[in-house]
Amino acid sequence: MAMQQPEEQSNSPQPHLKKVIGVFGGSNILIGIMIGSGIFYIGSYVLERSGMSMGLALLAWLIGGLVTLLGSLCFAELGAMNPATGGIYVYLSEAYSPMVGYMFNFQSMLIGGPGSIAAIAIALPLALKSLIPMNGVVVKLVAIGLIVIFTLINYFGVDTGELVQNIFNVLKVLPLILIIVLGVFWGHYTPRWSVVQQPKGGSAVDFIQMIAFAVIASLWAYEGWTNLNTVAGEMKEPQKNLPRALILSVGFTTIVYVLFNLAIYRALPFGQINHAIQHGQLYLGTAVAERFLGQFGTILVAVTMALAMISSLNGMILAFSRYYYAAAQDRLLWKPFAHVHAKFRTPDVSLFAQMLISIVLVLTRELDQLTSLVVFSGAVFNMLSILAVPMMRRRQPDTPRPYRVWAYPWTVIIATLAFLIILGNNFIDDPLTSILGLAVPAIGAVVYLGFRRYYRVH
User: Can you tell me where the transmembrane regions are (predicted)?
Assistant: First the structure.
């Protein structure tokens, strides 16, 4: 399909995306994406990787939050300097080349965005199977229904999607706070605070590797922190509000994760926690709710998990659709993807294209396959985006920067090292999937050259 000239050359005014997202709404988008169902079970992996040392596990959660905060500070500088819709796509294009930006965008449009949406849509009915029996077909039908419903919600306006995000976030955070208060203040057990715990027969290097392994597990719970920059073009006063929303959302999420796991350690005896993890019973938050609230606690956790995944799903649908829009604005995707609905002021074609790709992935892939596809390439581009900070300071030293990264360059160095550890760990654990995760961006480079050649001819 041939693309036409940019919208700016049209005789009639074209609608633009609305700037309606403030600090509270922006923070809720990120909190909604980051705090999903993982809060109830990832803590078990962190504790197990910490050699069952509660003090070391809490330290891993703090380090994970700190690394995420350092990364978000880098994104705050990039976003405040160039508050355009598209996020990482924009930064990679400016710092390296348009081809690198498009490689990220291509994998985000085909796998990263729709894959994450499909994964969370499938995970939600799976989490409720204990309360509502469902077979595989019903699970996928529910997942498709969720994708359609929340695509329509975001089609009717970014302010509508933001309102839904705010409501579901508040509804999910209140039960989490209840569990935290019950565990921390009414729990009877004293956690084992010591962090000096080496593997049997292990050296100091083994100990450091164990900490790094535990931190990697915690970082998966913080995933999604990069997505607010995608809608920077729809934020009010993004130069001020984007950094504030990033810092507030990551800080709040870190506090919730640390206190939630502390509540588990206070409410449950170590023997019970150890036995549960050894037998694959990873949802320790559910056990805390059951201890204090009985059967109602089980239902409360199930509802909270559903609310958490709904807010995560809604936030992803809102944010990821902007990748299509940004690429079309740069004439690297067909013009209809840059269309903005005249009344609702949303990228309607991009939203529905994302919906269709997500549905295809729901029908053709299982949950574990979807999550494996998006992890490795996503970490590569996140790391490149962090390194874009020094690249842009060198390339554009005179460009106004309303926000500058704290403790530069150490912020960039530490965050980059953290992502290198993640990438190395993923490649060692699953080299084939890691390589496949880079194949789609490589194809994106070929598609980019095709679009560029097309426009040279036309």
Answer: 20-43, 55-80, 100-126, 138-158, 170-189, 201-222, 242-264, 299-325, 346-364, 370-393, 405-428, 434-451
